[in-house]
Design a protein that fits this description.
- The complex is a heterotrimer of chains A (479), B (312) and C (308).
- Chain A contains 19 helices and 14 strands.
- Chain A has 479 residues and is of the alpha/beta class.
- In chain A, strands 5, 6, 9, 10, 11, 12 and 14 form a 7-stranded mixed sheet that branches. A 5-stranded mixed sheet of chain A has the order 2-1-3-13-4. Chain A has a two-stranded antiparallel ribbon with strand order 7-8.
- Chain C has a single domain, classed as MetI-like fold (Orthogonal Bundle), CATH 1.10.3720.10.
- The chains are: A alpha/beta (479), B mainly alpha (312), C mainly alpha (308).
- Chains B and C meet through helix 1, helix 4, helix 5, helix 6 and helix 8 of B and helix 1, helix 3, helix 4, helix 5 and helix 7 of C.
């Protein structure tokens, strides 16, 4: 025992002595990942047998679809074998698994990912920069095709640095939406609000009528902070002018004003969030016989839950849900966050593998297929022309305007939620992606909850608390 | 041992006996009361699991629900849980998950117990240089948080070519790295140390080899600890999730993977809510065998082993 | 004479297990130590970088959350382990002394092992929940029973409140294993001793203190030492009970291991150009040293108190 201890002491001493001074630096290049130099005449070598792997976390339905696509792909490119694998149950586990695989050299060729995950992979320069693949005359995308992608979604693939490095492609997208009790609104003559003041005017009216209610709910506090910042024009994260890298910027007065706006509404009992409600979903408070909530902002991926789980009696009594884009602080500042997975490619030593992976990725993103993927899943297709395919138009034609069963009502609502993407191309935004971006996101959510839950003795007390918490959060992230 | 012998007269003994009896009854009731309270506290989560497993999907999809008893009693959940299996992951069925888990559990348990016995024996009985040092270093292996081991071991296992292997490699990856548990070795060592030295020396004098002594004398005498270890190892292999999920190929994953990543409502690419009623039903299905196993083995642990053999 | 003979064949018994342990436990441990002194280690490329110094240690000792994490861990260790062990001992002894219903009770105390962790978490949250906004959801069970309106584990909870709930959970969680081991040990105690004590009409407490505990002392020492080590590594239990949505733990509630995991999950360098991963490794090493010291102390005490 003693020997082990002494040995350790000796080691420590030796190491401390070795700690020479010298400047510590962490210099980084302007581009997060150097663009892979694909020569202009590069093309797939059709004589070679190539195998590529695709890791995802899709459920049975979507996975079956991918398997069907692989068969179709093989008709066009018989020499490429695509192995798809459900590598994990959720995105975090998937990202962790890839992060483990990269140092071991086991990473796949294509993976589903979120932008924050790519920042992580980029620490090993593992993701493949697609710029030269997209521009390649043989196998790339034409300008028309690029313009066919919904612009906000395309831009997300470039949010990694200030140089336009494209590290991911949109795969299937969701966002948030403003869901409201359509029947109740009709009954009381409310118009669908386009500004937050409009929302809370309606909320106040409802509160006067039903004092026990919390008329408006917002599911995700993270999104509330980020979306609110964008709408209020308060910096949240951005790119540093010198280094071109992302950085945290939310510790400013505009941001605090934005938070104060919502805090005021929470204190008046007009608004509630999940964390303040024991983690219950707002849709669950709305779809009951005695609703406590009449409007909420929730994910479009969860559109079905506006109806699912509702007692049949409530539905038969005429309860219907409407959906609209998010309100803004002004009618012009209606921004909302885009979510949903992307796909990214990984660098490989074999250029043919990268080309094969690129071709498959391109194949999956063709209009027919992105439409085919969206319809059952409730996520939005990523290209304009997808909305014009026969598949899509048939789907739309099959939706009943006046649903009589719950399934019909759900189908109608899902279609309307997806169409928000089509009709409002300018409102979607993404945030800068960098090492701390995912930490920042969860941190501001927690920060917001703390402030909203705080019982202030006075305005000055609240201000002091807000300043203190902001500073603490900021220090924690940047330390 | 004879310290408490009290050679006073009958009178005192009689009174003492009466007191004893009264105390005895009071003691027994207290004991029962105490046990009932503790048992109740312990049962509550298990009851909750059963409660949720019989609730209907409508109930659990409404996140405001916290009822003590299912409003819509749905035993069909158990059937649906079986059906859920083949549709979901990698096309393999529930029975396949089960057989994977059985293979891993049996090999880990048998092999691990065998080596635990050997090492505990060496640490308890044999004399060799550095015995204390080895024991301390072995203890030290318990002091590292799990995540740090995972990252390094993943690379090692990957270099061995076992990761994601569509074959026996997956099993090796799941079994070998955490095969040896000092936790269990330590328990056995303590038990072995309680077996008197004299028996060992007597055997040695009779020319008995170490291994034979281990097999014929020590193992039977330490039976209850060994059974405890077998149960613990089985439970460990049965409940292991993080490591097997990372290293095994899709087709070789274990029941815990099935338990945790299936059962989302209609798979809406990530936002689907987990159907906890199915998840709880699945847990009950999966853990009932463990409970039965415990009940079966219990009588082997509980049968006392008299430690006669050495007098005085 | 026999006692001093050195058994070289001991190494036969130890060879294979030691090999496995070396590859899968010592090597990672050594690597962790190395990472902690190469303060720009990159986990994604598995390269050590060129800075060999103790900047990572400096960084964590300057980090108030690290100190707080160690503090939280200490409280957990020194309260939950003794209480859980004592309780388990009493239960095991009680179980051993009753004849009817004994089998049922034994099975009941094994149940936590086979209960889904989610279910346990749900029960605790139902019991200790508290709505942050009035009027929507009801108070949890404990609040209702005692007429309180306390935030036990939520965002606005005081340290003493959530720590209390975590302790209750940890004690509860550790019971089955300890009871199982003690029951096994109690069965081994020769009936001779108990019968002799009965003849002498020895009171129960005396039996406990002078017969049961000394004869169980090797197992008690085992349980204490292994439980201490386990408690120092607490993480899942705190996360389950005092964590918020999305499986996050507020940084003021971190245990030492929570701190480690948070740091190694971060990519890149902090504001002093020290790799987060190295900081995580450094904190793991410090935790390791703390556990080592306490185990050492424990072992020494055991040497005097344990009777084989």
């Amino acid at each position: 025992m003693k020997k082990v201890f002494l040995l350790f002491l000796a080691l420590t001493a030796a190491v401390s002595l070795a700690a020479c001074g010298g400047e510590r630096t962490g210099n980084e290049a302007a581009r997060l990942v150097e663009w892979y130099e694909l020569s202009a005449d590069a093309d797939l070598d059709t004589s070679k047998e190539i195998t590529i792997t695709f890791w995802h976390r899709m459920g049975a339905q979507s996975q079956a679809l991918v398997q069907k696509w692989i068969e179709e792909f093989n008709v066009v490119y018989p020499n490429i074998t695509v192995i798809e694998e459900k590598a994990a149950g959720d995105y975090t586990a998937l990202s962790d698994k890839i992060a483990l695989a990269i140092p071991a050299g086991n990473q796949p060729d294509i993976a589903e990912s979120y932008p924050d995950h790519i920042a992580r992979y980029a620490a090993a320069k593992a993701p493949l920069a697609l710029n030269n693949f997209i521009n390649n005359p043989n196998i790339g995308l034409t300008d028309e095709e690029i313009a066919d992608f919904l612009p906000g979604l395309w831009a997300e693939g470039q949010s990694y640095d200030d140089e336009g490095t494209i590290l991911s492609l949109p795969f299937t997208k969701s966002s948030e939406a403003f869901f409201y009790n359509e029947s109740y609104f009709k009954e009381h003559g409310y118009d669908v609000p386009t500004t937050w003041d409009g929302v809370f005017a309606i909320a106040q009216d409802i509160k006067d009528r039903e004092p026990d209610s919390f008329p408006f709910g917002y599911d995700s506090e993270d999104n509330l902070f980020i979306t609110g910042s964008k709408q209020f024009n308060a910096p949240y994260t951005g790119y540093n002018a010198e280094t071109g890298r992302g950085e945290v910027q939310f510790n400013n007065d505009l941001s605090k004003d934005m938070v104060r706006y919502f805090k005021d509404k929470v204190d008046k009992g007009l608004m509630i969030t999940r964390a303040l409600n024991g983690d219950a979903y707002n849709s669950d408070s709305m779809k009951v016989a005695n609703p406590k909530t009449y409007m909420y902002v929730g994910s479009t991926g969860g559109t079905r839950y506006a109806y699912v789980g509702m007692p049949q009696a409530v539905f038969d009594a005429g309860y219907r849900v409407g959906v609209a884009p998010l309100p803004g602080f002004t009618a012009e500042s209606r921004f909302q966050i885009q979510q949903g997975p992307n796909i990214n490619l990984f660098k490989s030593n074999d250029e043919q593998r990268m080309i094969a992976a690129w071709l498959f990725a391109k194949f999956m993103l063709e209009p027919e297929r992105t439409a085919e993927f969206s319809i059952p899943s409730g996520y939005a297709p990523i290209r304009y022309s997808a909305y014009e395919t026969t598949r899509w138009t048939n789907y739309v034609a099959g939706i009943k305007e006046n649903p009589t069963t719950m399934d019909e009502a759900i189908a109608k609502l899902v279609k309307e939620a997806i169409e928000i993407f089509l009709e409002n191309e300018d409102i979607f935004f993404t945030s800068a992606v960098f090492n701390q971006s995912s930490k920042t996101r969860s941190e501001v959510g927690a920060l917001l909850v703390k402030i909203l839950a705080y019982e202030a003795a006075s305005d000055a007390d609240l201000d002091a608390y807000i300043d203190e918490q902001y500073q603490e959060s900021f220090d924690f992230i940047t330390n | 041992m004879i310290q408490y012998m009290n050679p006073s007269g009958h009178y005192r003994v009689n009174r003492k006996l009466k007191e004893q009896r009264a105390l005895f009854v009071a003691n027994k009731s207290m004991t029962y009361f105490f046990l009932f309270v503790m048992a109740f506290i312990v049962i509550v989560p298990f009851y909750w699991m059963l409660n949720v497993s019989f609730q209907s999907s409508n109930e659990v999809l409404n996140s405001l629900n916290t009822s003590l008893f299912p409003k819509e009693f749905s035993p069909q959940n158990y059937v649906s849980t079986f059906l859920y299996s083949s549709a979901q992951q990698g096309g393999i069925t529930f029975t396949r998950y089960l057989s994977n888990t059985l293979i891993v559990a049996i090999f880990s348990t048998v092999g691990g117990t065998f080596f635990s016995i050997l090492v505990a024996f060496a640490l308890a009985r044999l004399n060799f240089k550095g015995k204390e040092l080895i024991f301390t270093i072995l203890l030290a292996t318990m002091m590292i948080p799990g995540e740090m081991l995972i990252i390094s071991n993943y690379i090692t296992v990957s270099r061995l070519g076992w990761v994601n292997d569509d074959g026996i490699g997956s099993f090796l990856a799941m079994i070998i790295p955490f095969f040896i548990s000092i936790f269990h070795i330590y328990l056995l060592r303590q038990t072995f140390k309680q077996i008197p030295n004299e028996l060992y020396y007597a055997a040695k004098v009779d020319g008995c080899k170490d291994f034979k002594y281990l097999r014929t004398v020590m193992v039977p005498m330490a039976k209850s600890s060994i059974i405890t270890i077998v149960i613990l190892k089985l439970m460990g292999a049965w409940n292991a999730y993080i490591w097997p999920d990372i290293v095994a190929n899709e087709k070789y994953k274990l029941v815990t993977t099935w338990l945790r990543s299936s059962f989302t409502d209609q798979d809406a690419t990530g936002v689907g809510r987990v159907l906890i009623n199915y998840q709880m039903a699945a847990t009950v299905i999966v853990t009932v065998p463990l409970l039965l196993m415990f009940i079966f083995f219990r009588k082997y642990i509980m049968s006392g082993i008299s430690r006669s053999g050495v007098k005085g | 004479m026999l006692e001093n003979k050195i058994d070289r064949k001991a190494w036969f018994y130890l060879a294979f297990p030691l090999l496995l342990l070396t590859v899968f436990t010592f090597y990672p441990l050594v690597k962790t130590i190395l990472i902690s002194v190469f303060s720009q280690y990159n986990p994604m490329t598995d390269t050590f970088g060129s800075y060999l110094d103790i900047a990572a240690y400096g960084a964590i000792f300057n980090d108030p959350y690290f100190i707080r994490a160690i503090g939280n861990t200490m409280i957990l260790v020194f309260v939950s382990v003794p209480v859980s062990t004592g309780l388990a001992l009493l239960i095991a002894v009680a179980l051993n002394s009753i004849k009817p219903l004994q089998k049922i009770f034994q099975t009941v105390f094994f149940l936590p092992y086979v209960t889904n962790g989610l279910a346990i978490g749900m029960v605790f949250s139902v019991m200790f929940s508290h709505p942050l906004t009035d009027g929507l959801m009801a108070e949890g069970l404990i609040n209702t029973l005692f007429g309180l309106s306390r935030d036990w584990v939520g965002v606005t909870a005081d340290r003493s409140d959530w720590m209390f709930v975590v302790l209750v959970y940890s004690i509860w969680d550790g019971l089955p294993f300890k009871i199982l081991v003690f029951i096994g040990g109690l069965q081994n105690i020769s009936k001779q001793y108990y019968d002799a004590a009965k003849i002498d009409a020895t009171p129960k407490r005396r039996i406990l203190r002078h017969i049961t505990i000394p004869l169980l002392s090797p197992l008690i020492s085992y349980i204490l030492i292994t439980s201490f080590i386990g408690a120092f590594k607490s993480y899942e239990s705190v996360l389950a009970v005092a964590g918020s949505t999305g499986r996050l733990l507020d940084r003021n509630r971190w245990t030492a291991v929570a701190y480690v995991y948070d740091k190694i999950g971060n990519v890149g360098l902090d504001s002093n150009f020290v790799s987060y991963y190295s900081r995580g490794a450094a904190s793991a090493v410090i935790l390791f040293i703390i556990i080592l010291i306490f185990t050492f102390i424990n072992l020494n005490i055991s040497k005097k108190r344990v009777h084989y």
